[in-house]
Every structure is written in C-alpha cells, then in structure tokens.
Amino acid sequence: MRKASQFFSEDDRRAIERAVAAAEATTTAEIIPVVATASGRYDRAEDLFGVVFALLALAAAWLGFQDIAAPPGWGGTHEPALGLVSILLIVFFGFVAGAALAARVAVLRLPFITRREMQAEVERSAAAAFQQFRVRGTAGATGILIYISLYERMVRVLGDDAIAARLGQSDWKEVRDLVIRGIREDEPAQGLVCAVEKCGALCTIHFPPQPRDLNELSNALRIID
Question: Are the beta carbons of 145 and 133 closer than 8 angstroms?
Fold first, then answer.
C-alpha cells in the first residue's frame, strides 16, 4: 500500500497549494486538504488473520506429517506423529506469524474489517485531524477540512460551525465525489484541486472576502503517514 507521502508528487503538492490559495482569495474560508495513509490500526483484523493462518499451518502439518499406524509386533500402542505439544506449538507460532504478517501487509487485513469499522475509524481520524491542524478555531469559524484516507478509500469533508450553518451534506457530497472521481481516473491531484475549487465557489456566496482577511492557516497539503 502506498503511503500518503508517496501518493502526491512534489508538483502535485504545489498545484494543490496554489489551488487552495486561489480558492481562499475569493472567500474568508480556510481550506485544509489532508491525506492519510490509514485511519485505523485494526488490531482485531490482525488477530483474526493470525487465527486463520494458524489453522492453515495446522492443517498443512497434519496432512503432511501426521500418521497413525499400528506398531509392529504384539501389545504396542498407536502413537500419532504429531502429539499435543507439537500441535499447540504449531498453532501458537502460526498465530504469531500470521498476526505479524498482517501487520506488515495491509491488504491481508481487509477481509476481516467491516465497512462500518472503516467508517468509524475515518470519522474519528478526520475529527482528530480537524483539531490537530487547527481547522476549528479560525477567526470566523470558517475552516473546512478535506480528509482523504487511502487504506479505507474514503473521503470526509468537515466544516467549522459557521460553515456548517450554511452548507450541508449535499454540498460536501459534491466535494467528496470530485476527490473520488479524480482518484478513480488516476488523477488524484486534479480531483483534489477540483474539490478545493468547489469549496471556494460554495463559500464565496456565503463568506465573501473581507478587506482585512488574513490567511490564518498554511495552504500546503497535510500528510499523515
């Protein structure tokens, strides 16, 4: 999985920064684009993959090495090639190896993560980014966060109080869809630029530029690896 720091080139980042500056020149709103590698750790998914991996390792060992045969002669007992201790060790080390593998290879966790879990993690991380990058607390409460989470393939758009009072979910859906369309068409930077421009166009109506308006937050793309 590509990290957020690798997703946009330097030229892309400069184009996004210019788009933010141009959009903010038409409004008092502050637009903050953020791209994150992933929003959640999903430890439960790692454990579940570890369990499946352990069971597969046990099945392979059983098919490959287990053998129960009658001993030669009289009075012998049947002894399996794999005893209880061997089976427990296979399960234990299979679980550890599987969980470690899932921690390193993100795609292995996907079958064990529900969409609801992903949505909850993206919502939580977007809210954290809203605070981390000081989107909340601008002079006119006109901050807008465009949050892209690559692993979950989700986008969230959040507005501060003044923005939320004038713009609704249908507006944010338009912005979100522009980002998603750009990523699907392998033009993520252009998609984000269009989303930023759309935010500027929406905000110009309700929050036109003021003579002494200051650029309170950096126009640069924020990266969360």
Answer: yes
User: Which pairing describes strands 154-159 and 143-149: parallel, antiparallel, or unpaired?
Assistant: antiparallel
* Cα Dmax for the chain: 103
Q: For residue 157, give the nearest of 116, 191, 195, 114 by alpha carbon.
A: 195
Q: Identify the weakest region by mean pLDDT among 63-77, 114-128, 151-165, 171-185.
A: 63-77
d(CA 80, CA 63): 12
DSSP for 81-138 reads: SS-HHHHHHHHHHHHHHHHHHHHH-GGGGGGG--HHHHHHHHHHHHHHHHHHTT-TT-
> Mind listing the pLDDT tens digit for each residue in 24-43?
999 999 999 999 999 998 99
Token pair listed for 11: 């030229």
**Structure token digits, residue 62:** 């059983």
What residues contact residue 22 under an 8 Å CB cut-off, 6+ apart?
197, 200
pLDDT of residue 83: 79
The percent of the chain in helix, strand and coil, each rounded to the nearest 5, is 55, 10, 30
Buried b (16+ CB within 10 A) or exposed e, 82-91: beeeeeeebb
Domain ranges (residues) in the chain = 4-40+114-224, 43-112
Top-level class of domain 4-40+114-224: alpha beta
